[in-house]
């Protein structure tokens, strides 16, 4: 299996890991979807690259699925911010849930035959809860902080990434900027 060459991180991703998480899935030219956290191994690598889990941590599919779910909720919130709309309540609730998880608290369970007992979280769940909490907090900071007004969606279809605008730049990468300029030039030539 060959490794896919992803574009470099979008402007602002170095400041906000939540932005980089949102951009970890993208639609490439031709409609191909590229997902940097599609498997537990890829998700673990992405989290380790962002210093959110130990390099040797192994994730299970359920944990990678939780990361992908949080990514989708963050994407919904970023889209709502860019479009100046109100996001669905479940996206806000999902980020708030990740923000408020306490991985050290063991919930009380009561089985009818066995009586009360506490279930200790699995160590992998603890590190994933911590990583999701950090990402959710960063998403909340991005959406409410000084960079919120610079947040933009890449202006080069079919790209689906987000970026922090710097000046007039509306593209997440040189590749997307070149594609947008070529499309404009083609449109001008077609009209003549």
Written account of the structure:
It is a single chain. The chain is mainly alpha-helical and 192 residues long. It has a domain at 17-105 and 120-151. The chain contains 6 helices and 6 strands. It has helices at residues 17-22, 40-49, 61-83, 89-100, 123-144, 174-191, and strands at 25-27, 33-35, 108-111, 115-118, 151-153, 162-164. Strands 1-2 form a two-stranded antiparallel sheet. It has a two-stranded antiparallel sheet with strand order 3-4. A hairpin with an 8-residue loop joins β5 (151-153) and β6.
Helix-residue proportion: 40-55%
First-to-last CA distance = 45 Å
- The total of beta strands comes to 6
Biggest sheet, strands in spatial order? Answer: 1-2
Structural class: mainly alpha
Tally of helical segments: 6
Give the overall average pLDDT: 86
Give the C-alpha Rg: 20 Å
Strand content: 5-15%
Which H/E pattern describes the elements? HEEHHHEEHEEH
Low-confidence parts, pLDDT < 50 over ≥5 residues? none
For the largest beta-sheet, the strand count, sense and barrel status come to:
2 strands, antiparallel
State the shape: elongated
């Amino acid at each position: 299996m060959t490794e896919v060459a992803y574009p470099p991180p979008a402007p602002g991703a170095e400041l906000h890991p939540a932005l980089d998480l949102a951009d970890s899935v993208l639609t490439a030219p031709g409609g191909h979807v590229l997902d940097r956290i599609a498997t537990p191994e890829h998700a673990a690598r992405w989290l380790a690259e962002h210093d959110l889990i130990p390099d040797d941590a192994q994730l299970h599919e359920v944990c990678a699925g939780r990361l992908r779910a949080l990514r989708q909720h963050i994407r919904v919130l970023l889209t709502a911010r860019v479009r100046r709309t109100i996001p669905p309540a479940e996206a806000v609730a999902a980020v708030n849930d990740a923000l408020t998880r306490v991985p050290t608290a063991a919930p009380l369970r009561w089985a009818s035959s066995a009586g009360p007992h506490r279930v200790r979280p699995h160590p992998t769940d603890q590190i994933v809860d911590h990583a999701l909490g950090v990402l959710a907090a960063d998403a909340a900071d991005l959406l409410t902080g000084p960079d919120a007004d610079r947040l933009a969606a890449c202006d080069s279809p079919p790209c689906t990434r987000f970026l922090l605008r710097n000046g007039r730049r509306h593209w997440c990468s040189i590749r997307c900027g070149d594609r947008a300029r070529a499309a404009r030039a083609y449109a001008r030539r077609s009209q003549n």
